[in-house]
Amino acid sequence: MLINRTTVLVGENVVLVPYRKEHVPIYHEWLQDETMQQLTGSEPLTLSEEYEMQQSWHDDQDKLTFIILARDQKTSETTLGSLLESSPMAGDVNVFLHRDQENENGVEEEGQTSVNSAVGTTWGELEVMIGAPEYRRRGLAREALALLLYYITANPTPTPVQQDHEPSALPLKPDHLLVRIKADNMASISLFSSMGFSQRKFIAVFNEVELGVTDTKRLWCKKPDKVLEWLERT
């Protein structure tokens, strides 16, 4: 999260904010649900372990995580303080960065993607979760993904005006994006398909399908209404 640790993306119905310590209790509560664990492929953690995980993600340059806030449509205020006060947590959206690596025989190691690419290419693996049941099936995951896709592929990368640097790992090429989804999670497969992703392979050992972007013109992105800065506390 070193890349986006102070970046806030404001959309029409969602606000994406960096995953911070104050978000951990609610996030931890979401992941106590067994169905959510199965859909996300995650193991249950104690609250203490969840805080440790948040800190490790915060310090990791290869993990880019936003908490999805449901933006209150009754207020027109767009200052960070007003948005945080009026927008409850709804879920999270992530991209995990990794580089293709080949073994000494020039063959991809087990677990690596099978797409054709140059060694050393940076890939982004996407995930999205609406953890709060009351905010599911309201289009929040779709808009959050669209904002994230714009953020990680736009050149230049949208950053708060106060920042004097740009994230070095971005932008990513649209055809270097992928998502792995449980084969029976039809809602998630349908969501990513509607965003311009298509199935590339089936991973039988994990009962997962891998989707990627084969036609970059079909990728649906959405430019944020505003990009704000969330100053880190010392």
TrEMBL record:
Q: Keywords on this record?
A: Acyltransferase, Transferase
Question: What InterPro entries does the annotation carry?
Answer: Acyl_CoA_acyltransferase, GNAT_dom, NAT9-like
Kindly indicate whether the keyword Transmembrane belongs to this entry. no
An example of a Pfam family matching this protein is: Acetyltransf_3
Q: Which stretches make up the N-acetyltransferase domain?
A: 14-197
MF GO annotations: N-acetyltransferase activity
UniProt lists the family membership as follows: Belongs to the acetyltransferase family. GNAT subfamily.
Q: Which PANTHER family match?
A: ALPHA_BETA-TUBULIN-N-ACETYLTRANSFERASE 9 (PTHR13256:SF16), N-ACETYLTRANSFERASE 9 (PTHR13256)
What's the protein name?
N-acetyltransferase domain-containing protein
Organism annotation: Malassezia psittaci
